[in-house]
Amino acid sequence: MSLQQRSIFFLQLLALLISITSSIPNPNPEFPCQPPHLNSYPFCNTSLSITDRAQSLISLLTLEEKIHQLSNNASAIPRLGIPPYQWWSESLHGIASNGPGVSFDGRVKAATSFPQVLLTAASFNRTLWFKIGLAIGIEAKAMYNVGQAGLTFWAPNINIFRDPRWGRGQETPGEDPMVVSAYAVEFVKGFQGEPWRGSGNLRDRFGRKRALRGYNDEDDDRLMNSACCKHLIAYDLEKWMNFSRYSFDALVTRQDMEDSYEPPFRSCIQQGKASCLMCSYNAINGVPACARGDLLQKARNEWGFKGYITSDCDAVATIKEYQNYTRTDDDAVALVLKAGMDINCGTYLVRHTQTTIEEGKLQEKDIDRALLNLFSVQLRLGLFDGDPRKGQFGELGPQNVCTTEHKMLALEAARQGIVLLKNDNKFLPLNRNVVSSLAVIGPMANNISNMGGGYTGVPCEPMSFFKGLQGYVKEASFASGCSDVPCESDAGFNEAIRTAKKADFVIVVAGLDLSQETEDHDRVSLLLPGKQMDLLSSVAAASGKPIILVLTGGGPLDVSFAKGNPNIASILWVGYPGEAGGKALADVIFGDFNPGGRLPMTWYPESFTKVAMNDMHMRADPFRGFPGRTYRFYTGNRVYGFGQGLSYTNFTYKLLSAPRKLSLSRSFTGTSTNVGDMDGSHVVMLFSRAPKKIEGTPENQLIAFDRVHTSSYGSTETSILVNPCNHLSIVDQQGERILPLGEHVLTLGDLVHSVLIET
Ligand SMILES: *[C@@H]1O[C@H](CO)[C@@H](O)[C@H](O)[C@H]1NC(C)=O
Ligand SMILES: *[C@@H]1O[C@H](CO)[C@@H](O)[C@H](O)[C@H]1NC(C)=O
Ligand SMILES: *[C@@H]1O[C@H](CO)[C@@H](O)[C@H](O)[C@H]1NC(C)=O
Ligand SMILES: *[C@@H]1O[C@H](CO)[C@@H](O)[C@H](O)[C@H]1NC(C)=O
Ligand SMILES: *[C@@H]1O[C@H](CO)[C@@H](O)[C@H](O)[C@H]1NC(C)=O
Ligand SMILES: *[C@@H]1O[C@H](CO)[C@@H](O)[C@H](O)[C@H]1NC(C)=O
Ligand SMILES: *[C@@H]1O[C@H](CO)[C@@H](O)[C@H](O)[C@H]1NC(C)=O
C-alpha cells in the first residue's frame, strides 16, 4: 500500500469504529438527547417549537421527577437519558469559581479576568462593555463544551450603588440608574450571543474569519448562554450594624422605585433580553422579594420577560427562617411558586414541595408553570440538541479561552477605566527616560490575589502593580509598609520610608480589598483602613518627594487629607483592575495611555456614615437632616463627584446646534477639542436639571454619555438625540413619569444651555 492508500485505509477503519461505538446505548449520557434518545422523544426533536418540546418533556415526568428539577442542582432523569444539570455558574467579570457549575480542573485551567465591573463602568464606553460581555460569553460556551461550566450564569449584578458602604457596590456599574441600565444591556447582549442572531462570524485564534454554526433565521429565541439580571430588587445592604440582607425589609417609595431601583431591571429585560431574573433575599415594603408576585408578573407582562426566575441562594428558606414571614416551610414554598418564582438555589424546594402539594397548598400545575420556563431556557440554549460540540457554537473550546484578543481586551478595559483624580502641576505622566529609580509601597502593590475583587476565577496571566511598573523602570523596589490591607501595625513603616528615600519617585498603593468590602460585609467607615493614612503621611513627609497615590477597591474613600496635601502630587483610582491591572497602571503612569475614566459614583466624606444605611430614601429630606443619595439627590459636600476624572490634556466644548425649544426629539451637536499635546479619549456627559415643579425633582441627571477619541489639538463632533419624554421627564410621588413645562437646564462641561418645554 502506498502511504496515501494506507492513510485512507486507517481513516475508513476509524470511521467504522466511531459508527460502532456511537450505536451502543449510552447509559450515562453527558448530554441529553444523544443516541439512542436523539429524536426518539418529541422534546429532542429540533423541528418542533421550544414550547411544544418543553411541554412534551413535562408531560413525561412524574411529580417526584418534577420536584427534583426545582433546585440549582437539578437531578438526572436516567430513564429519559437526561443527565443532571447545574444551573449555578458565575461570570460577573470573567468566568468565576464562585458557582458549583464552573471548574478550572480540566483542559481549561484559567479564564480571562476582566476588571471588576465598577472600574469597567468608569470607562463609560458601551462598545467596550459589549465586547467584554461577548468575550466572557465565548469563554463560557467554550468551557461548557468541555464540561467545565453550565450555560446559565448569574451575572450581571445591576442593583445601583446606593450607599458607599455597600460591600458589593464594586460588582455593579455604579450609582446612576441610566448608566447601570446601559451597562446591563450591552453586557447581556454580548454574553447571550446577540450578534449571532440570524448569522454570524467569529474569528478563530489565528484571526481567520470562520463561520460558526450559529442560529437559523427562525431561531430568534436561541441563546449562546443565559445571563441573569440580579438581584430583584432594592438589594444593596449586606450586613451593617444589626441589619442583615437575609432579613432586611427595604422600605422604598414609589417615586424611588420608579426612577432609581427599577430602571436597570427594566432595561436588562426589555432591551438586553436577558433570560433570567434573580429575586433577592430582602423584603420590599414588608414582602420578601421572591414572594412579590406583583413585581415578578410585571417583569413578564410589562417588560416582556421570557426566561426563568431563580431565587438567590436559600432565599426561600430565609422567608420562613429569618423573616418569619410564613409560619411553615410549606407556606413559603407555596408562596413563591404561586408568585412566579421558578427555581430555588438550594435544596429547600426539593425538600418541601411534596408535602406542600399533599396539603393542598400548591397544585401540580404551579410546578408545570415553573418547569415550562426552566425547560424553555434549556432548550433555547441547545441543551437538548445532543452533543453540543456538534451544535451551535460547538467549535468553541479551550483554544478560545485566554486568547491574546481577550487578554488585550482585559488590559484595554483597565486602562480605559482608571480615573485620574488629582494631578498637581501635571506631575504625571512620568517620563521613563528621566525616572531612574522607583519605590512602590503598600500591602497590595505586589499581591495578585485581590486584583479582580469579588467573583474572580483563575486569571490567565495576572500581573501585580509592582511587576507592571518594573516593566518601565528596572531599578524598582517594593516595601509593603503594612503587612496587609487592615494595616493594624506600623512595624513596616521604617522599611517603607527607607525604600522611599532611596528612590527618585514614590508610588503608594493604598485602599481596599475584600477584607474590607465583600459579600455579607459592608464597611462602617469611608476612611482608609487601619493605619494606611499614617503610612501615606509618614512616607510623604519623610521622603520629601511628591507622592503618587494609587487607590484600590470599589467603595468610595474619604481621602480629603490627600486631596489637600501638597506632598501628594497625583491620585489615581484603579478599582479592582483585573489580571492586566499591573500593566494598565504602569501604562497610565508612564503616559503610554492617557487616562479618561470617570467616577461612576459619588465619593462622600466620612460624615456620611451618620446616615443610616438601612434608610432606602434617595431624596434628601432637610427636615430630618437626611442629605440624599447619589449625585442626583445628595446635597452635602463631596470628596470627589460622580463623573469626575482628569486627563493628561484638557478638553473644551462648543455647541454647534442646540435647539432652544423642544417638543419632539431633536439633535444636539457639539464639538470637543483636545487642547493638549497628547491624544486621548474622554467622556462627553450631558446633564439636565428640570424645573423644580414637583417634590423630589433630581438636582441633576445624566441624560446621555459617549466616550470619544480626540487627537492632540484636534476636534471631535458628537451628536446627541434628545427626546423630551425619555430624557427630560421626571417621576412624581405617585410613581408617574411627567414632563415638567418650563426651562430645563442642560450642561456639558462648562457649557450651560437652557431648553424650553411648552405645552
Ligand atoms: C419531528 O417533528 C416533525 C414535525 O412534527 C415530524 O415531522 C418528525 O417526524 C419528527 N421526527 C421524529 C424523529 O419523530
Ligand atoms: C446534587 O443532587 C444529587 C442527586 O440528584 C446528589 O447526589 C448530589 O449530592 C447533589 N450535589 C450537591 C452538591 O448537592
Ligand atoms: C437595630 O438597632 C436599632 C438601634 O440600635 C433598633 O432601633 C432597631 O430596631 C434594630 N433593628 C432590628 C431589625 O433589630
Ligand atoms: C424571626 O424569628 C427568629 C427566631 O424566633 C428570631 O431570631 C428573628 O429575630 C426573627 N426575625 C425577625 C425579622 O423578626
Ligand atoms: C496577598 O493577599 C492575600 C489576601 O489578602 C493574603 O492572603 C496573602 O497572604 C497575600 N500575599 C502576600 C504575599 O502578601
Ligand atoms: C487644564 O486646564 C486647567 C485650567 O486652565 C489648568 O489648570 C490645567 O493645568 C490644564 N491641564 C492640562 C493637563 O493641561
Ligand atoms: C471604546 O472601547 C473600544 C473597545 O475596547 C475601543 O476600541 C474604543 O477605542 C473605545 N473608545 C474610546 C473613545 O476610547
UniProtKB/TrEMBL annotation:
Instruction: Identify this protein by name.
Output: Fibronectin type III-like domain-containing protein
Q: Where is the signal peptide?
A: 1-23
Q: Where is the Fibronectin type III-like domain?
A: 682-752
Under the heading SUPFAM superfamilies, the entry gives: (Trans)glycosidases, Beta-D-glucan exohydrolase, C-terminal domain
- Domain of life, per UniProt, equals Eukaryota
Q: Which Pfam families match?
A: Fn3-like, Glyco_hydro_3, Glyco_hydro_3_C
Q: Does the keyword Signal apply?
A: yes
Per UniProt, the keywords (alphabetical) are: Glycosidase, Hydrolase, Signal
Tagged with keyword Hydrolase: yes
